[in-house]
Specification:
binds pyridoxal-5'-phosphate, elongated, 21 strands, Lyase, Ornithine Decarboxylase, Chain A, domain 1, 2 domains, alpha/beta
């Protein structure tokens, strides 16, 4: 097997066996007839869309969901022939392209359907109608809007209404009142829909949080994103632990320079850190252009199974840490992941930055090569910058 070469000492690892495990664990909880769409938008939440999609389908996912038509096209071009859904906005002028590639698009505007119907569409266009039941983002909110959309769909033989869906705003909260309110609004719209539309369609409502916490309430399929990657959608769900997840992502580098710095010397831009005594300072070849942003100053990394703090400002391509002793150049540094009995989790980094887990792998930039493993064995590497 040949690996795309890269020539730097910082890389992310994606354990594909974890993706497999997480999908199978969810499957065990869901009703046997509920299918899984693997959500691989944003380059698979920073893990790599193609590799994750491939593993997810092998593990039993029935389709793939993304946010943008560009993302769906990339997957088709890579040879995926499974159902593909674009969950966000597609321009009406791109409807012919979506149809040609058999990519389902999300619709929620009468005008959109009118404009799309004026194009020459080569094949039936698969539509998923979005209902806004409380997210307030995209989707129809009333039965009048629904009727207007259904009329357009009925009048144009090229349109195929394949599914109807909604998205929950608070499925990962402790408090479930708003979640139940959204379900109720869905049911209200559904009872109208049932009366006016007799052809077969599928329904889908759940993201990771809803599908793990309320598996018996899921419809034809769920849209499984963050937890397929082994991360819980919130600390509430993490504590509940509805299914045991295994995180796929880790981030590593190596010491490229180690020196003893005497007391009262400053480190990095702005001289924000000054040594108090003789200190061993290590330099790591990763910086904010790789997504390790300046706000992570003060955060720990692992060297030799121990925690060491980032000292001084993080630069674009490098940062410094304070070591407890001298280590050789080339020593492995773990920014996210395990070393011996120590672990820095994505949750810890997210907490440090006062954000959610989703943001962390997404922010590790395309300059960081991704290395893929199965059961700990490297199977592939991809430098996103060049592929
Ligand atoms: C991103 C997204 C999902 C996946 O959500 P997770 O919380 O990551 O599981 C599901 N549905 C829609 C509409 C989305 O945009």
């Amino acid at each position: 097997m040949s690996f795309a070469p890269f020539y730097r000492d910082s890389w992310a690892e994606v354990e594909l066996s974890a993706i497999d495990h997480n999908i199978k664990e969810l499957q065990k909880r869901l009703q046997p007839e509920t299918k899984i769409y693997a959500v691989v938008k944003a380059n698979g939440y920073g893990h790599g869309d193609i590799e994750v999609a491939d593993q997810a389908l092998k593990a039993g996912a029935s389709g793939l969901a993304v946010a943008l038509l560009d993302e769906a096209l990339r997957l088709r071009e890579a040879g995926f022939d499974c159902p593909l859904l674009v969950m966000g906005w597609t321009r009406p002028e791109d409807a012919p392209l979506a149809a040609e590639k058999e990519i389902a698009v999300t619709v929620f505007q009468e005008d959109w359907l009118r404009q799309a119907s004026e194009q020459s569409i080569p094949k039936p266009l698969k539509l998923h109608m979005k209902w806004d039941t409380g997210m307030g983002r995209i989707g129809i909110r009333t039965t009048e809007e629904m009727d207007a959309l259904l009329r357009q769909i009925e009048q144009n033989a090229i349109f195929r209404l394949e599914a109807v869906f909604t998205h929950f705003a608070t499925a990962d909260d402790e408090e479930s009142d708003y979640y139940l309110e959204q379900e109720q609004r869905f049911e209200n719209l559904f009872s109208h829909f049932e009366r006016v539309w007799t052809k077969d369609v599928e329904f889908h409502t759940g993201n990771s949080a809803a599908s793990m916490r309320f598996p018996e309430r899921m419809k034809h399929f769920v849209r499984f994103g963050i937890s397929m990657y082994g991360l819980y959608p919130s600390s509430v769900v993490k504590e509940e632990r509805p299914i045991p997840l295994s995180p796929a992502f880790s981030l590593h580098s190596r010491l490229i320079h180690v020196k003893k710095v005497e007391a009262n010397q400053s480190i990095s831009y702005g001289a924000t850190y000054t040594t108090e005594q003789d200190e061993w300072i290590g330099t790591i070849p990763l910086g904010y252009a790789d997504g390790w942003i300046r706000k992570l100053q003060g955060m720990d990394v692992l060297v030799d199974g121990k925690r060491h703090p980032i000292v001084g400002r993080i630069c674009m391509d490098q940062f410094m840490i304070r070591l407890d002793q001298e280590y050789p150049v080339g020593t492995k540094v773990t920014l996210i992941g395990k070393q011996e009995d120590q672990e820095i989790t994505v949750d810890e980094v997210a907490d440090y930055l006062d954000t959610i887990t989703y943001e962390i792998p997404c922010m590790i930039s395309s300059r960081v090569p991704r290395m893929y493993k199965k059961q700990g064995e490297q199977v592939k590497a991809r430098h996103l910058l060049f592929s």
